[in-house]
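Troubleshooting log. The previous structure file for this entry was overwritten by mistake, so regenerating from the original sequence record. Sequence copied from the archived sheet and checked twice against the printout by T.R.
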Amino acid sequence: MDPPVEAIEAGKAIALPHGKFKIDLILKQLPSGWWPDLVSISSTLMLVQNPPIPVGIPSLTCPSVMKLIDSHHMPRPIQNLIEYAKLVGCQYHWTGYTRHHIHFFVEAGLPNVFWMPGAISIPPYVPESVKDKTYDVIFRGAVDSNHYHRREFLKFLQEAEINVDFSGSPYAECLDIYVQSKIVLNCSLNGDLNRRVYEVLMVGGFLLTDRLALQSGLPLLFQEGVHLECYGSKQELLDKIKYYLSHPDAAAEIARQGHELFMAKYHPEILVEKFNQIVFDGKSIPSIFSAQDDVRVSHIFNRTINTNNLYSRLKVYELLQEVHRLNFEIDLLYYKGKNELLIADLSDLPKFQITSVDSSQELANTTKDFEVIIIDLPNEVSDLEHLIEQLNPCLSGCSLFLALGSSSSIKQKKLNSLLKSKGLVPTQFVERDNRTYLAYQRQFEENQTLSRTKKLNLELFRYSDIEDYNNPLNNSSGGIKQLVKNLVHTINMRKG
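Regenerated output below.
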C-alpha cells in the first residue's frame, strides 16, 4: 500500500492511492514498454482506512487474481471479503488457508474460486537432519490474545510439566529448530490450514497439529498417523506427546513419510506450476483445488441461489465462528430448524457438536446440555411461547440463544420476557441494525458456577464495546484495524 520512499524514488515501487482510482493511473507509471503479465491483489488492502479500489481491472488484457485472506476471524470477515472482491472484479480468486470457505465465495458469485495449499507461499529450504534432538516439544508462532486455543493448550502442557519451548524465532531459524525437535506442535487460529503444517513437513520434522474439518483440506493432503499426527482435545494432545516422546522411532517414521509426500506433491515449486497452469494457461481447476468434494460447493450448481439467504446465513456463521475461536467442545442445538444450509455451513467448525431435532419427543430423548441453542422464529407469538416451553429443560444450561428471522416488536418483547426468566438477556454482536437474528446471552454473577454446563467465552466484537462501527469499505471508517484497536482499548479499560 505505502512502499518505502526509497523504492518509489528508485522506480521500483508505486504507491496506491486511497479510495477508487482507475487502474490506468498505475499502468501509466510503469517504465516505458512495460506491461503486467499478471495483476495480483491481496484482500488485506481492505483493512486500511479508505482502502484502495482499482477500477478497470476486468478490462485488462492480462489475468487478474485476488488472494482472499483472513476469512476465519475478525468481525464479518467473509462478508467484507465478498464485498471488496466484487468491487475490484478480478478474474480469479484464491485462498491459501481457508478452503472450507470456498462455498461461500462461489455462492456469492465470485468467478474462478480455488484453493492453493499454503505451501505455495513459503520459501523452499531443507536444513540438514539432526540425529540427536535438542528439544522435546517446541511451538513457534503467535500466542497473543487472538490465538485463544494456543494459549490454553500451551498453558495446559506447562501445568502437565511437559518441556515445551515456545519462544519466538525468525523464519529460517524456525526451520532449523524444527529438525532439532522431537515434536513440533501446531495449533490453528480457528480451523485454518496454516503454513506451519507445510513448513514442518518440508524440513522433515515430526508434526503434531490440531485436527481440522475434512473441508479444510488437511485430511485430503495428509493421512493422520502416517504423515503427521493430530489431536482434538487437551488430553489427546498430552497423551500423544507422551507416547511419541517415548517412541522416537515411530515419530521419525511419520516425519520421514510426511517429508517425502510433501516433496513429491506439495513442494512450493510444484504448486507454483499448478497455479500458473490455472491462471496463465487457462487450464481447468483440479477438483481438489476447487473443493468439488465439498457438497456445499458441488450442490450450488444444482439449485437457485438466494442471496438474502446467503447473507443471513453468513451473519450467523460469522458470529458462531468467533464463538468457535474462543471455546472448546461446544454443544449446539438447532431446534425445529428449517435452514439445512446453515447446518451445512457450520459443519466445518469442528469444535461444535451439532444436534438438530424436529420434535419435543426427540428433544426429550437427548441427554446433552447445550451451550448454544438456535431456533427459527415462528410466525405467531403463541407458537413462540409453546416453543420456549418445550425448550425449558435445556435453557438452564444455555449460554447463548439465537432466534433466527425477522421479528415484530411484540414478538421481540415477548421473547425478551420469556428468556429473562431463564437468565438470558438481549445482547448485540457485530451487526448493527441486525434483522437476521435476535441474540441472548446468559448473565453470570461473579464466581457463579453452573452444575449443568460450562460458561462460554463470549468476549466477541459487540456494538456496546465500539462507539461507531461501519463497513471498512466505507470512506468514513477507520477500517477493521481501527475497530480492533477500539475493542482492545475497551477490554483493557474493563480489566483496569
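The two ends are 36 Å apart (CA to CA). Archived copy saved in two places this time.
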